[in-house]
């Protein structure tokens, strides 16, 4: 990890630069995949399964029999853990379902909003080196609570043409309606445009590699909504003398092991912490099965020494981390002044892993600085808010003249007339 001591404000942009991904280099490949899926449908999906997943997929949709078999293959201890996590996630997201109040803005004019579920949603779940069954819980649970009519899940098969059992167990637990053995950019294309077997969806959710990320951005241009722009995982930990170096090192490595393009940052409020954190990282790194991946991530990760809490907050808000861990005494100061972060973990005993799995909050979060303008996935991600209004005869009398004056000033005579004709009708009564 690179060590930066007391950076000047004007240099922060340079020091906080994320690993750059050359998306332009893969856009051509992704576009070819999108075009072929649009043209050849299921045949293209089978072709890419053979090419990328090294397997022959005859039936794209996972059957009930396969789901039952997979459920029996999941270790009892893991099943129990998934069920506990599911209950916590369900409890947290169900609490977001609120009844909105009807507001009488003017006497006789009542306005309100109602949430209506997005009817068809598509969830992408990465497989490969880390089959993310936890992401099934994070996406399908709020989708189910929201009342989405159709929940579709795509995930890449292994070389035997099967889906990881824990992904299928989590899928049936969360009431996913359809599961398909399709991965990569081709899965995004299938859900966005539809094939013979897979009907298209209205909105796409879920993380993925750079091909999936670019595919999501490209299909968005064709009118398919996505959850948010997403990129490599990241964490920023800020610590003072009250932090536990071994905890901090573990938190940094937990994100570094995600992928070689992940980035982790430690903001130190005490210089003596630097060596202690470095030693802990080196020690814990020795025993990591994903050591090679973590080492690559650490090569573009940083330890930044600052003078005080104010400078630490400036760095946090400029970086806008996906995950922020506050290993500090004065946590309230940071909670009050930090405005850009995807999810915040407070205190020495709140690891980022808790949010990834079982505390109840959602782990699908904005990365690459998008926390400045985006929040993480929530129940609201699966609904749209429709406004309603009802105006009584008295109400149109009360605001009619206001509408007439404004419409006339904008030279929109028909708008004005839509009110005037009603007011004239009421005068005759």
Give the helices and strands, then pairings:
Blueprint: E1 2-5, H1 12-15, H2 24-40, H3 42-52, H4 64-73, H5 76-94, E2 103-106, E3 109-117, E4 120-124, H6 133-146, E5 150-155, H7 165-173, E6 178-181, H8 184-193, E7 203-205, H9 210-220, E8 225-226, E9 234-239, H10 245-256, E10 263-268, H11 273-285, H12 291-298, E11 302-305, H13 309-319, E12 323-327, H14 331-337, E13 343-346, H15 352-357, E14 383-391, H16 393-409, H17 413-428
DSSP strand tally: 14
Secondary structural class = alpha/beta
What distance separates the N and C termini?
80 Å
Q: Would you identify the CATH H-level superfamily of the largest domain?
A: Nitrogenase molybdenum iron protein domain
Number of helices: 17
* Largest sheet properties: 6 strands, parallel
CATH level 1 class label of the largest domain: Alpha Beta
